[in-house]
C-alpha cells in the first residue's frame, strides 16, 4: 500500500502518535535525485557524514546532483555495507527548506541580506565586543561534524588571530570523558587498538552502549565474528533492554544507573582475588595512583574543581587530576570493599553474574575487547569509569595487541579527527598539545607565525560554562556552526532563555536547515554540507579519510571554510590564511600535520590521503599506518626490546587508578521517583535536523516517545499511545507512552530519545558534569511521570 504524506500523517495521528506537522513540500526531492543506483553517470569516494565509525561510501552523480549512494566494497571499515542512515545520504542534501541565503533577525522575523552584509555585520560585532570587553567576550562553538580543514582554520583564527581560547566543540558533550580517561591513564588521547580486533578477539564487553543502533556496521562485524566461532562470548552491560541485549548476547547485565563504577571495581576485585592478573605485565608496564575524591558535580556557575587549580595550568595535562602514587598492596586494599555482593546491592546485578563476567575477562586463554559510548562518557564520573575499564585490561595485560583492546566508540564523523586531534577545545592546541604548556604555545606560535603572547595560556570557557557565560552576559558574541546546542544542551531552557536576553548579545548560526538553534539566532549563514565541499574526517580507530567536492550547494550557501577565511579578512587576520598559490585545503593540512610529526601523532601527506581509498590510521610513518599502538612490532615508536611502552607517560607506564564509587548528582526521591535516561535511535542523527527531512526515516520514527516499564505504567493507568508528562525540577515535556518494542526499561526508569524538537527532553535533563572532563551527564536525573 502506498500512502501520500497527508494520508500517512492521518494514519499516524489515528494511532495516538504525536506527529510533527511539517509542510508536505519538506520531503520533496528535485527531479533526478535519489533514483536507482544504475542511473549514476560517475561514482566518487567519500566517508559517510554520520557517526564516527567512518564507513566508506561511493557517491553516484548525475547532472550535478547526488542521485545514489552505496557502500564502498574496498573500504576496510564497512566492506560495502551501510546502515539505514548511510543509505539515506543523497536525500539529506535536498530538503525543500534548505537555507539558501543569509538571514538577519529583525524583531521576530528574518530578512534576506547579502553575504557581504552578513560578514560585515558579523565582523563588526566581534570587533566591537573585543574592543569594549576583551577577547574573552567572544566565543566559537563548532562540532565533530566539522571537517579537519574547517576545525584547524577556526582554531587558528580564534587562538592565533583573536587571541581567545573560548572555542569549543560539541564533542565536549559526547567524548570529553574518553579524552580525559585516555590522558590520565596513558598520557595520550585515542584508542591503541582498531576495528581489526573485532575479527581477532573472542570476548566482547559492551558497556552502556546501544551498539546495535548507534554503530550498526561495527555491530554487524561483531555478529559475523560470533557466527563464525561458537566460542565467542558477548557480554552486554546496560541500564535497559535494547537491541544490543538481544540474541546472540551470552550474558546480559542490566544495572541501575551510575552503578557501573561499583561493577567495574567488583570485577577488578574478582580478578585480583582469584589470581587472574598478569603479574609480569603489571610489574613492567603499570603504576598505581589515587586521585581526589568528593570532587563535586559542576552544577553551579563558575564551578572550581580542586584538581584544576592555577598550578595545574602549567602542566601539559589540562584540568589535571591531583593524584599520588600508591603501591599495588594499597590498590588491593582499596578493592577490598568492592565485593560482588556489595556491587549487587548498588547495581542490582547478581553477584554471581559479576563473578562470571570478571572471570571471562580474566581467563588467560581468552582475548577481550571492551566497547562503550555515552553510557560511560555522559557521566558525572565519566573520567573515572573510563579509567576503570582500562584497569581491567591493564590488570590482565589484555591491551595494545591484536584482539585485546579497550575501544571507546565515537558518535560523530570527526569528533576524533577535528575536535580531539585538531584541538578545537578551550584547553587544546593541534596535535595533542595544550595552551597551558609554554613549550606548546611556543611551537604553535612558530608554526602560525604569530607572537607567542598572542596565544592565551589560560583555558577558555568549556561548553557548559560558555553557555552559562552567554546567559550571564559575560559572552557578548558567539558563532555556532554545524551543531544545535539549543536542543542538545542539558537544562536547555536556561540557555534558550539566555540566548534571547538581548543587550549586547549577538548569536551567529551557520546551518543547513531550520533548527532550534537557528531560531534563536540573530544572523543565519547558509552552509554547504558533506560532498558540497572538500573535506577530511578522522574516525574512532584513528583513521583519516579525504574526499573532494562533488556538487554545488543550493542557492548562495557557502562552505564553512570560506566563511571562516572571509571573517578572518574582515577581522584583520587574513594573513593567517595567505598561502600564496597553494590550494587552501592542502596548505592548511600540511601546516596542521607539523604539530604531530615526531610525537606519535604523525599524519600522512595531503596528497597520499587524497589518493588512498579508505584512509589511513595514524601514526603514519614512512607511508605505513599503525594498527596497534604501544606494542613492539606494530608501533614504530616502540623500540626493539621494549615490548610495550605507553610513551604518552614520561616513564612509559600506564596508570591503574583507584577510583571509588560515588553517588550521582541527583537521585529519585518521593517527589521525583523515576530515573530518566536519554539517547538516540537508529533512524535519526542527533537532533534530527537532517534525518527528519528524509521521508523514509521520518516515517519509521516520526516522534520521540517515552519508554515506560509495563508494571510502572499499570500502576499509573498508562497505556501504549497515551499522552504522558515527564517533569523534573528544571522543566517538562509531553509525549506518547511506549511500553516495549525495541526498548524495555526496568521498573523505576524511563527513556526518551533527544532527536525530536517537539519533545525537547533536554528541558528536563540536569546540567551536572564531570569536574575533570567537563562533560555533562545526560544519562540520569530524577523525574516524575503522569498521564495527561
From TrEMBL:
GO (cellular component) term, any one: nitrate reductase complex
Record flagged with keyword ATP-binding: no
Cofactor note: Binds 1 molybdenum-bis(molybdopterin guanine dinucleotide) (Mo-bis-MGD) cofactor per subunit. Binds 1 [4Fe-4S] cluster.
Residues that hold [4Fe-4S] cluster according to the record: 48, 51, 55, 83
SUPFAM superfamilies for the chain: ADC-like, Formate dehydrogenase/DMSO reductase, domains 1-3
Highest taxon listed in the record's lineage: Bacteria
This enzyme's EC code(s): 1.9.6.1
Subunit record text: Component of the nitrate reductase NapAB complex composed of NapA and NapB.
PTM comment, free text: Predicted to be exported by the Tat system. The position of the signal peptide cleavage has not been experimentally proven.
SMART domains on file: Molybdop_Fe4S4 (SM00926)
Location in the cell: Secreted
Name of the encoding gene: napA
A Pfam family reported for this protein in Swiss-Prot or TrEMBL: Molydop_binding
Keywords: 4Fe-4S, Electron transport, Iron, Iron-sulfur, Metal-binding, Molybdenum, Nitrate assimilation, Oxidoreductase, Signal, Transport
Task performed by this protein: Catalytic subunit of the nitrate reductase complex NapAB. Receives electrons from NapB and catalyzes the reduction of nitrate to nitrite.
Record-linked CDD domains: MopB_CT_Nitrate-R-NapA-like, MopB_Nitrate-R-NapA-like
Signal peptide: none
InterPro entries: Asp_de-COase-like_dom_sf, CT_Nitrate-R-NapA-like, MoPterin_dinucl-bd_dom, Mopterin_OxRdtase, Mopterin_OxRdtase_4Fe-4S_dom, Periplasm_NO3_reductase_lsu, Prok_molybdopt-oxidoreductase, TAT_signal
Protein name stated in the entry: Nitrate reductase
Binding site for substrate: 754
Amino acid at each position: 500500500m502506498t500512502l501520500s504524506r497527508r494520508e500517512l500523517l492521518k494514519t499516524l495521528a489515528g494511532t495516538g502518535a504525536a506527529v510533527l506537522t511539517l509542510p508536505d513540500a519538506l520531503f520533496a526531492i528535485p527531479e533526478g535525485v535519489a533514483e536507482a543506483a544504475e542511473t549514476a553517470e560517475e561514482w566518487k569516494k567519500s566517508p559517510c557524514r554520520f557517526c564516527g565509525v567512518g564507513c566508506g561510501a561511493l557517491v553516484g552523480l548525475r547532472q550535478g546532483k547526488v542521485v545514489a549512494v552505496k557502500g564502498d566494497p574496498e573500504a576496510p571499515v564497512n566492506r560495502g555495507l551501510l546502515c539505514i542512515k548511510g543509505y539515506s545520504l543523497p536525500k539529506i542534501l535536498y530538503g525543500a527548506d534548505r537555507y539558501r541565503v543569509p538571514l538577519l533577525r529583525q524583531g521576530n522575523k528574518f530578512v534576506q541580506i547579502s553575504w557581504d552584509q552578513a560578514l560585515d555585520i558579523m565582523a563588526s560585532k566581534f570587533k566591537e565586543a573585543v574592543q569594549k570587553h576583551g577577547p574573552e567576550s567572544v566565543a566559537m562553538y563548532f562540532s565533530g561534524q566539522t571537517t579537519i580543514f574547517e576545525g584547524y582554520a577556526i582554531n587558528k583564527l580564534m587562538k592565533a588571530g583573536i587571541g581567545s581560547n573560548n572555542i569549543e566543540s560539541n564533542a565536549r558533550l559526547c567524548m570529553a570523558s574518553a579524552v580525559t580517561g585516555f590522558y590520565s591513564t596513558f598520557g595520550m588521547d585515542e584508542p591503541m587498538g582498531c576495528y581489526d580486533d573485532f575479527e581477532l578477539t573472542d570476548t566482547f564487553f559492551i558497556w552502556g552502549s546501544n551498539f546495535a543502533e548507534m554503530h550498526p556496521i561495527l555491530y554487524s562485524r561483531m555478529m559475523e565474528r560470533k557466527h563464525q566461532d561458537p566460542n565467542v562470548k558477548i557480554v552486554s552491560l546496560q541500564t535497559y533492554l535494547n537491541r544490543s541485549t538481544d540474541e546472540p548476547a551470552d550474558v546480559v547485565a542490566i544495572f541501575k544507573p551510575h552503578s557501573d563504577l561499583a561493577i567495574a571495581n567488583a570485577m577488578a576485585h574478582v580478578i585480583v582475588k582469584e589470581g587472574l592478573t598478569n603479574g609480569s605485565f603489571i610489574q613492567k608496564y603499570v603504576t598505581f595512583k589515587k586521585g581526589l575524591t568528593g570532587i563535586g558535580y559542576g552544577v553551579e556557575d563558575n564551578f572550581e574543581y580542586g584538581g584544576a587549580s592555577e598550578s595545574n595550568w602549567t602542566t601539559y595535562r589540562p584540568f589535571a587530576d591531583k593524584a599520588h602514587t600508591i603501591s599495588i598492596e594499597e590498590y588491593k586494599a582499596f578493592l577490598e570493599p568492592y565485593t560482588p555482593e556489595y556491587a549487587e546491592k548498588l547495581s542490582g546485578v547478581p553477584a554471581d553474574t559479576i563473578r562470571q563476567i570478571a572471570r571471562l575477562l580474566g581467563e588467560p586463554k581468552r582475548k577481550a575487547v571492551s566497547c562503550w559510548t555515552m553510557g560511560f562518557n555522559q557521566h558525572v564520573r565519566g573520567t573515572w569509569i573510563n579509567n576503570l575499564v582500562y584497569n581491567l585490561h591493564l590488570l590482565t595485560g589484555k591491551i595494545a595487541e591484536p584482539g585485546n583492546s579497550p575501544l571507546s566508540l565515537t558518535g560523530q564523523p570527526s569528533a576524533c579527527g577535528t575536535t580531539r586531534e585538531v584541538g578545537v577545545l578551550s584547553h587544546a592546541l593541534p596535535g595533542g598539545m595544550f595552551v597551558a604548556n609554554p613549550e606548546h604555545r611556543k611551537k604553535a606560535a612558530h608554526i602560525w607565525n604569530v607572537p607567542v603572547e598572542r596565544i592565551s595560556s589560560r583555558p577558555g570557557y568549556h561548553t557548559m560554562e560558555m553557555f552559562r557565560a552567554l546567559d550571564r552576559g559575560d559572552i557578548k558574541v558567539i558563532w555556532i556552526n554545524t551543531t544545535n546546542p539549543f536542543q542538545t544542551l542539558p537544562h536547555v531552557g536556561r540557555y534558550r532563555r539566555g540566548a534571547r536576553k538581548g543587550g549586547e548579545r549577538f548569536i551567529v548560526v551557520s546551518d543547513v536547515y531550520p533548527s532550534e538553534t537557528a531560531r534563536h539566532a540573530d544572523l543565519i549563514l547558509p552552509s554547504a554540507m558533506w560532498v558540497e565541499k572538500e573535506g577530511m574526517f578522522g574516525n574512532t580507530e584513528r583513521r583519516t579519510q579525504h574526499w573532494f567536492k562533488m556538487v554545488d550547494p543550493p542557492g548562495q550557501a557557502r562552505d564553512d571554510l570560506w566563511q571562516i577565511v572571509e571573517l578572518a579578512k574582515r577581522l584583520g587576520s587574513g594573513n593567517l590564511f595567505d598561502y600564496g598559490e597553494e590550494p587552501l585545503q592542502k596548505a592548511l593540512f600540511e601546516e596542521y600535520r607539523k604539530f604531530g610529526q615526531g610525537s606519535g601523532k604523525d599524519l600522512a601527506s595531503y596528497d597520499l590521503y587524497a589518493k588512498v581509498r579508505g584512509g589511513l590510521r595514524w601514526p603514519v610513518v614512512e607511508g605505513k599506518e599503525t594498527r596497534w599502538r604501544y606494542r613492539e612490532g606494530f608501533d614504530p615508536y616502540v623500540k626493539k626490546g621494549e615490548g610495550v611502552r605507553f610513551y604518552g607517560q614520561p616513564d612509559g607506564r600506564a596508570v591503574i587508578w583507584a577510583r571509588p564509587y560515588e553517588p550521582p548528582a541527583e537521585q529519585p526521591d518521593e517527589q521525583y521517583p523515576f530515573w530518566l535516561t536519554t539517547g538516540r535511535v537508529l533512524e535519526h542523527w542527533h537532533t534530527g535536523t537532517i534525518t527528519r527531512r528524509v521521508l523514509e526515516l521520518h516515517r519509521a520514527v516520526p516522534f520521540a516517545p517515552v519508554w515506560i516499564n509495563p508494571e510502572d505504567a499499570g500502576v499509573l493507568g498508562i497505556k501504549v499511545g497515551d499522552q504522558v508528562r515527564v517533569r523534573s525540577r528544571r522543566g517538562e515535556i509531553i509525549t506518547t507512552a511506549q511500553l516495549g518494542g525495541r526498548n524495555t526499561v526496568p521498573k523505576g526508569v524511563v527513556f526518551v530519545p533527544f532527536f525530536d524538537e517537539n519533545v525537547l527532553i533536554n528541558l528536563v535533563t540536569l546540567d551536572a558534569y564531570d569536574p575533570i572532563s567537563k562533560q555533562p551527564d545526560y544519562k540520569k536525573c530524577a523525574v516524575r511521570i503522569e498521564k495527561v
